[in-house]
Design goal:
CATH topology: Thrombin, subunit H
Shape: globular
Radius of gyration: 15 Å
CATH superfamily: Bacteriophage SPP1 head-tail adaptor protein
Distance between the termini: 38 Å
Strand order of the largest sheet: 1-4-5-8-7-6
Order of helices and strands: HEEEEHEEEE
CATH architecture: Beta Barrel
Number of domains: 1
Strand content: 35-45%
Helix content: 10-25%
Largest sheet: 6 strands, antiparallel, barrel
CATH class: Mainly Beta
Length: 124
């Protein structure tokens, strides 16, 4: 049962769904000087909501020593967080106002949606 679909209309009345663009990390290429340059798949458009973090989520990201402007983004669909053994992670989410957010952690992962903890990358 998709519980998010049950409450999505009520949540959207207060915090509307927005069009997001997600670029999934495909790893990196290495320049001749050894510098690693991230590579990404073509952007995919999905719906989502940007929300503030809870106190527990703030403590969690503080414990990971992640600093900056942080938010939670609820995504209609699924993406993955950082999985070092699989060389996954580093996905980028762009909001309609041009802000670029780096996915650090997938806090909740369900069949039809997920909740990503993200950090602002470009200060826009």
């Amino acid at each position: 049962m998709n519980l998010h679909a049950v409450v999505a209309n009520q949540i959207s009345a207060v915090n509307p769904l927005i069009q997001l663009s997600i670029k999934v990390s495909t790893g990196y290429t290495q320049l001749a000087n050894g510098q690693q340059v991230p590579t990404y798949a073509a952007p995919v458009r999905i719906l989502g909501q940007v929300q503030s973090l809870s106190a527990g989520e703030i403590r969690h990201m503080d414990a990971m020593n992640i600093q900056g402007i942080r938010r939670a983004i609820y995504i209609s669909g699924q993406i993955d967080g950082l999985v070092r053994p699989n060389k996954q992670g580093g996905d980028l989410i762009t909001t309609p106002n041009g802000q670029i957010w780096l996915v650090h952690v997938i806090d909740e992962y369900w069949e039809d949606w997920c909740k990503a903890l993200v950090t602002l990358q470009n200060g826009a």
